[in-house]
Amino acid sequence: MDSRNFANWERYLIAGGALTLLIIGMMMTTEVLNIIFFGFFFALLGAPVSAWLQEHRVPVPLAVAIVLGLLFIVLLSFFGIFALSFGLLVEDLPTYQAQLNANIGAISAILQQFGFSEITEETFMHPDLASLITPAVTILSNLTKLATDTFFVLVITGFVLLELPTLPVRLQEAFPGHDNIPERVHRFIRSIIDVMIVRTKTNIVLGVAIGTFFWALDVDLAILWGVLTIILSYIPYIGLLLACIPGVILAWLQFGIPGLLVSLVGIAVINFLVETVYFPRIASRHLSLTALYILISLLVWDLILGPAGMFLSLPLAIVVAFILASQDETRWLAQLITENDSAEEPTETIFRRIRRRIG
């Protein structure tokens, strides 16, 4: 084997070992990393508001304080909606259990009409709905830890927002003579913020549409399903599905098979109109990232960080793609995970496409 090839393989083995140790270390410190990553995540969402306030001559500390206050109000509102809806759900649980048993009986009757005489109501399992709310009870009961984690997330968000205005200057001081590095990092951060703005707008439109749709169908807890759609739609590809499952099940419990079919068709139409017509270019198309890469990123970050990794998978996928595209040794990987027309500068192509498609 050529000594140069051996040196390359040795470098790849060392890099692979370091990456493995890094992943193991991240899995061992998941709770801390989740707080840090969510702090950066909220900072990306709050940065445009902070920048707008600063453009209107609001001092940086006051602008950051206003953003943190708004974030706190939004989080507190979401938690209040979840707590109130959970209480109503528990109160109406006996009714839902009776509706479930009745719907199962109706399904067995329909199957018997089609010749499946051996299938009776006793053939089906009758799930105990009370057992399904146990995870929610566990989460809500640990309010102290939830409040502590939220506090540290907001603290990190505040410090990140305070650091952003001076970041270009400090990068220039750290890399004198390398004007392209501060410029690239600044455009990279700007691009992530733009993508998260588009994703947030999409989620809000989806959430309002889904909540209004369930309200029009007279499905219980319609506001909760709308809020859940806004939150879970940050998860690429499967977020909307996860958010709508409870509402669809409730529509089936309340109105039987017609309610199930109407809700499924309505959600499909809303998703098509919002994702394909109103916001025709989102997620992977904004970033020129392949759908396969985003899906793999979703699975990997879920493995490393747990359920929180599913929410953070999109911005983390952008970060990884940027790092790969910034190094000569890994640029070929960046070309595999990006849909670029140019093989010379993947990072520049990504930035140009983001600017052109987001505007």
| CA-atom Rg in angstroms | 24 Å
Low-confidence regions: 282-286, 341-348, 350-359
Overall pLDDT confidence:
79
**What's the helical proportion of residues?**
over 70%
Summed up:
By secondary structure, the chain is mainly α. The protein has 16 helices and no strands.
Describe what you observe in this structure:
With 359 residues, this protein is mostly helical. The model is unreliable at 282-286, 341-348 and 350-359 (pLDDT under 50). The radius of gyration is 24 Å and the shape is globular. The longest helix is centred in the C-terminal third of the chain and has 40 residues, at 239-278. The chain is built from 16 helices and no strands. It has a domain at 32-174. It has helices at residues 3-28, 30-55, 60-91, 93-113, 129-132, 134-141, 143-163, 167-174, 180-216, 222-232, 239-278, 284-287, 291-305, 307-326, 331-337, 346-358.
Task: Set down the secondary structure blueprint.
Layout: H1 3-28, H2 30-55, H3 60-91, H4 93-113, H5 129-132, H6 134-141, H7 143-163, H8 167-174, H9 180-216, H10 222-232, H11 239-278, H12 284-287, H13 291-305, H14 307-326, H15 331-337, H16 346-358
